[in-house]
Structure formats: C-alpha cells, structure tokens
Amino acid sequence: MEKQYKITSSEGLHARPCTLLVSAVTPFSSDVQLTYDGRSVNLKSIMGVMALGIPADGIITISANGSDEEAAVEKAGAVILEEGIGVEV
Amino acid sequence: MLEIKGIGVSNGIAVAKAYCLVEPNLTFDKYEIKDFSEEKARLQRAIDLAKIELELIRNHAIKKFGKENAEIFSAHLLVLQDPEMRMAIESKIDKGINAEAALDEVASTFIATFESMDNEYMKERAADIRDVSQRILAKLLEVDLPDLTTIAEDVIIIANDLTPSMTAQLNKQFVKGFITDNGGRTSHSAILARTLEIPAIVGTKIATTSVEHNEMVVLDGSTGIAIINPTQEVVNEYEQKKEAFEAEQAALRAYIDQPSVDRDGHHVEIAGNIGRPDDAEVVKANGGDGVGLFRTEFLYMDRNDFPSEEEQYIAYKTVLEKMEGRKTVVRTLDIGGDKELSYLTLPEEMNPFLGYRAIRLCLEERSLFRVQLRALLRASIHGDLKIMFPMIATLDEFRTAKNFLMEVKAELIEEGFEVSNDIEVGMMVEIPSAAVIADLFAKEADFLSIGTNDLIQYTLAADRMNEKVSYLYQPYHPAILRLVKNVIDAAHANGKWVGMCGEMAGDEIAIPILLGFGLDEFSMSASSILHARAQISKLSKAEMKKHIDHILTLTTSASIENYVIENLL
C-alpha cells in the first residue's frame, strides 16, 4: 500500500507539516514509511523526516506495512491534502 | 561603561538590571551499566517527566503567543517521544552505556546532521533538538533547568542563547529585553521577541562574559547596541529615546488601516519591499498598500541547483495569495556581478556592477529566464501581478525581454495553462541612460520603478561598498533629483504610473520632494511604511510644488537637505 504526493507547501516539509503528519500516523500499529529521493525513513519519527530536508516540489512516497496499513496511508494522505501540504501525483 | 554590539532583532529600548542566566550544570560521566532494563526504565521516567514539563510550557505558550506560535512545542513533544531516537538510545544502553551518555551521543548525531544542512531554517532546528535532549538529560541528572517564570522584577536577560522553551517562559511584565551571545535573525528567540514586542539583541558573542548579574544595562534593539554600567547621563538619554519610541509606536499604529493620502486627500501608494514569501505578512501587518518590489534572488540563493518552475510557481503564488489582491510587483532575477550563485559559474569581472548581470544575463541564458517567466505567468491568476525587468539600459533590451515574455505566455496558453490578461509589464529605472530617455521607455512600458540605490551609484560613479567614496552616495544630489523628476514627468506625460523602490522612497528628507514631484508609489522596507504614511498625511502635494521650484534651484546635496529639514519636516 503506497501513495505518491508532491509537496506544495511553500517552505517544504518544515516543522509544522511534519508535526501534523507524524502525529497523524503515530497511533497506527503498522510501520509507516516516507521515501524521498531514494531514502526511506520511519514516518513516526519527526527527526527522521525533518532530516530529509524535503523542499517544496519534492515528490514523496508514503507506504505502510501491517494490520492497519491501508488506514494509515489514507490518514497520512488526508492530512497532506487537507492541510495544503501537498497534492497527489 | 562598556558598549557591546550584536544583531538588533526586535526594535525598542530597555533600561534595566541584568539577569544573568545561570547555565544548568549538565555534565555527566560515561560509565558502564549492568542492569539494562533498569537503565531503560530510568530513561523512560526521565522522558515522562520531561513530557509533563514540556506540556506545561506548551500550554503556557498557547496562552501567551497564540496557537500558531506555540506549534513548535508540539514538534518538541514529538522529538521527545521520537521512536527512532529512543531505539538508538536503547541500543546503546544494551551495549552497557549509561542513559546520559547514550542520550548525548544520539542527540549529538542528530544535531550535527541538522547543523550541517545547507539551509538556515534546518540549521535552526538543531537548537530544538538540543533543547529537548537537555530537558531529558536534566531529568536523568535530577538537575532543575532555569525557570524564568519566577522572575518578578524588571530585568534584561543575559544568556548564551535562549532556548525556545526558555523564551516561552518569558513574562513581558518583568522581562524588558534580552541579549544573547549566539543566535541570528531567524532564531526562535528573535522571532518570539518580535511577537512579544520586547527589544532584543542576539549574536553579541561576548554578552555573558561582559555583563555581571544585577549590573545596569541599556539595550537598543534597533541599533543592536547595549551599554553596560551606563552613566546617569546615558541612562537619561536612553530613557528619553524609549519614551519617544513608545509614543511614536503608539501614534503610528493609528495609521495601519488608514489610506495613504496627503493632507488634501491626494492618494499615493505606500508599499513594501520583500525578499521572501513570508515577508508579505510583515508588509500586511504594517498596513502596506502592496508589494512594490519582490526581489526573486532568494529563490536562487543558498542552494545547489536552480529552483524548478514548480518551486518558483509555488513561491509566487504564495506571495500573491498572501497579498489578497493588492498590487504585487515582481522583479525578475537580478544576479551576476557581486551576487553570485555557487552553481552558476561566471567569469570574474573587474567591475561587477558594470558587468554581466540581471537582464543582461537573463537575455543570454534564455532557458534560465524562461523557467522564471513561466512560473510567474502561471502564478498570475492568483492576484494582481506586475512584472518588471532590472538593469534596463536600452530600449532594445526592454523590447527583447517583453517579447520573450509574450512568447512564453503564448506557449503556456497553448499548453492549456491559464494566464491573467491584466499583467502590467514595466522596468526598473536604475541606469542613468534609462532615466534620461524615460520618455521613450514610457511609451512602451506599463510602469516605471526607480531603483535609487543603483541609480545613485551609477550617476555619481561611486561604488557604494567603498567607504572611501561613500560621501558621494548623495540621494539629494541635484543630478539625482533632476533624473527622478524627468522619469516621473515622462511617465505621467504618457499616462503611466511611477514607483520608487530604493532606500530613498522611505527616507523622510526625500519623501516631501518625491511627493511634490508627483511620485505615485513609494516602496520601502515594511518597518518604514507607517512612518511614511504618517509623514505624507501631514504634507500637501499641492503646497509642495512651490518648494520644489525652489529646491530645483539649489546647487548642492547639503543645501537641499538643509532646506527640507528647515521647512518641510
């Protein structure tokens, strides 16, 4: 289960969007991954995600593995769209 | 009496006793542990205690700064509970390392990662991680972190650096300002100082070693100067400045929602110059009528490659949306010469200010220019966009640039993009040749914007970076005034509007003259907007005309300056 998004938030994936995303997926039991530029990190780790320094226009892939993987990916996607963080590609 | 200097990051003046923040002693030993699970439990307890404290700080911050400014503490809470960080620490504990050392080693790795990033914002995040890890460390060592909420008398805080969590504890009632050794304009502490409206100086390097607890301190956040142990005379002087500053701030605030009109109701526009999308907020907060100059260089700087069309589109769209329909003038890329990009190799020049730069470079490097124009045109549907070209010297340059813009526009429409049909296309008048033949340009450009910083240095042939010739940087030189007047008259004769986006537009001596000349738009740094609006509201353009006749007969910059000071301020 995975989905791709393009970051449209003008400052890239900064503290605020990261906080929203990490908070959104933390309650799920599945492992949730974010991949950018060939590197994958745990989406429940704010430092891992921030350390990628994802700029505006960056393409990210969200994937999950576990019993609630679909719900987790969908929740992350909903936050990205609702908060104006990015658009689906 | 001792004077120290740093970066003034929040305007205002404070006079109070120094409160030297005692750095908590967080030294620890690295030692071998046997009971791994007990050590992990100890780490867990420290994290839990730190979490309770941090939640209190966040709630405090929400109340004081509002939800948006307190959001950083939600991020801190996530750092505190970061699963990757926890795993890394626990795996070190499993190797027999005590929790303090394990935490410190892991946090240091993350801090180093952020500090080495090629981006000012990300560098600042290292401070967040340090702040959180120190809180956990303090809990492990059972050491109390300084609690600034207990301060109950007027003080100026002196510290190495203020962590975000410390800044959130500041009580404006007692904390009159702060001075730090480290930090920069974009540090949390700097941003929150501006939100709280308390004066602050950062990056002094020596504040903590120069000031003793309880010593008297005078702090001027506008100049970045602090005076330790001032004489009574100096204290009196700054007390007066403080009163004047506060009275002025209060008076200026009344102009935020006022129109920009002179005493007779003649309308002008007072706009802001910006360098980043976020600056648009500052222009609005200061009541600006629009953006008179958006320098797009920032998009290209501090990075390793050219920004993509999409990235630029987002930046331009953001500014246009933030300005909510107010006029937004974007200047196309002005690099080359002294403004270098690491990823664009240009030959070194003898005279960079007279060299291959701005529109000269863009017309040669069409592919680079095309990307910017595409992004701008696509963003045009999100607000009132006006585009201007920098460093235009000849009519041919303007025509070529404008034709290319039209070509790119046609391309976009063919590709199915929506592009506004009301985009005005103008130019900067900053080269004397353009100022002299402004009448020819005014027939083809939709507007002219006078860039005085360069116009002055080119007209007087004086490098403004060279201190030896800085006396020649004379905005009121009769030649400059005549050129400015010529540009304004030429534009008006052709039914076009004229703006000015150099320092001169916000200068209180120049403003009466420019108003008299009939300048339509004054664009300046956001912090000058209200001052200019207040000044213009007391002047009369009609009355200024007779002063102008006299000013134009004066022969030197000094005599013109004196005339304005004596008659028009």
TrEMBL record, chain A:
Alphabetical list of InterPro entries matching this protein: HPr (IPR050399), HPr-like (IPR000032), HPr-like_sf (IPR035895), PTS_HPr_Ser_P_site (IPR002114)
CDD domains the record matches: PTS-HPr_like
Domain HPr: 1-88
Recorded superkingdom: Bacteria
Keywords: Cytoplasm, Phosphotransferase system
Cell location: Cytoplasm
NCBIfam families tied to this protein: PTS_HPr_family
Protein name, UniProt field: HPr family phosphocarrier protein
Lineage, top ranks: Bacteria, Bacillati, Bacillota, Bacilli, Bacillales
